[in-house]
Amino acid sequence: MNKIIKKIILLQTMMTIGMSQNPLIIPPAMTGNNFDLTLQVCEMEFFPGVLTETMGVSFPILGPTLIMEKGEEVNISFNNQLPDTTTIHWHGMHVPAEFDGGPHTPIPPNTIWNPHFTIKDHASTMWYHPHLMHKTNEHVQMGIAGFVIIRDSLEALLDLPREYGVDDIPLVFQTKTLDDNYQIVTNMDSSGLDSYLFTNGTVDAFLEVPAQIVRFRLLNGASERSFNVGLENHESFYVIGTDGGLLPEPVELDELLISPGERYEILVDLNNRVGETIQIMNYGSTIPNGVYGAETVGGMGGSSIPYYADNDLNGNDFSLLSLHVVSQMDEPILTIPSSLVIVDEWNTDEVDEIRSIQFSSVVMGPNGALNGPFQFNGEPFDINVVNYEIPLNNVEIWELQNQSQIAHPFHIHDIQFNILEINGLAPPEHMRGWKDVVLVPAQNGTAKFITKFEDFSNTEVPYMYHCHILTHEEMGMMGQFTVVGESSVSIDETMKSPKTFTLLSAYPNPFNPSTQVRFNVSSPSQVTTVQIVDISGRLVETLLNKTLSVGEHTLQWYAGNQPSGVYFIRLKFGSLTKTHKIVFMK
User: Which CATH number fits domain 158-338: 2.60.40.420, 2.60.40.10, 3.40.50.720, 3.20.20.70?
Assistant: First the structure.
């Protein structure tokens, strides 16, 4: 790299880690059962006098925090006003595959996606973000992401901070690459230049917090970078929750490594500290070798990640957020609880199947082992191939082995799991709760977890598993599975609403050149629309758009003038939408 680029990177880094000066953005909270949201292109003034183009959810950057209650039914509307097709994935949440928001449920421009389901998760910190093939990294980098806070009756009994934005604070850490005009660069070839730090979409952020126990909900929303979070001077804090829920008891730490996609809830004791300024730090100097964000990753045979050695965020300690401690609020929480909730882990004596997944590079040699592209079990991702069909209610152990030089945060949709081992050892105490991301160490590192695939099944729409380093995912480090069997919870039961139409089907599937679409309408009061969209979400053809009589209906779609590939039949009935995957093979 030439000296000019090095100087630019150094200046960027100095601005990123300089004295805090901007009030932290706290995403607005939305509560209730109905959430109407808009995906949009906007602008933000991150730096004085400069407007940076962004994408957000009803706001210029990020989206509102959706606060939901376990057992409640929610109805969500996403109006896509982006110029791109996208999706919205409910990261960590246990929802039907139709509404999980993976690459099989695209939202084309100027259309509305209407997921609706019952909240079945424990009290926890989840999040939502795009998940469309070859667009995930771009849309997340541009700013589309948001928190989901789930509450339940057990968490409500605990003496914990929960006044949102006051003593219960969501924090998402991200790094971005900006060009000379301070515009976000989403080209993955430049991802190693991610030298600008954003906390809640804020550069150089500070926050006023009360002098009492404060709860922080930490999310690593970065595309690649892991953060080693701690307080200034290595003061202690207490981990109370993992990805999918609370721990049995608080765990005292002074550093917490968080990889992309992971969440942790922590308590910080700020009693008697009015007037002090305390930094929440990234201790990059102690991130293990092989983890993106450490001083070095790999190194065998001179291999390296492009620009990595020149990015001064790597291997260095810097502030993530400045806390300015002010007076206590009314009725403050002043003590750390001694116990939290019972974590009823899955039983290893009831395992139905063990699956093994190896992480490897497509390209042989040291550079390939560090930069990829990477794949699972020697197979590139193919959206037309379901890697596993998993019987409903299976209890399974998944064994992961990483043959590359870089650590990979492995994420699986649909379920939460319990980590059994990392590199053959029991996980540390703060990782013994519910998880949906596990960082698998580099250079033949291993991880093992146990889980159960319950409640939901769908033979047509898969769930995904993948590396949550988004540049790795985009290059094909992903697989998919369906859960098969008779679901104990149907879509209509989750909403406790009258069944207005049955989920459509098509035969034959795969087909050439035509397929027959069948569906049943039990209420004539709404307009029925049947559309064909391709894998990118582009509308191919509208087969029907009118009010129908009660009963079964049949349509024919002739695809002879279309290219081979995956398509979706989308049936809309009023505000409800259902989809069905079909494959056209010439």
Answer: 2.60.40.420
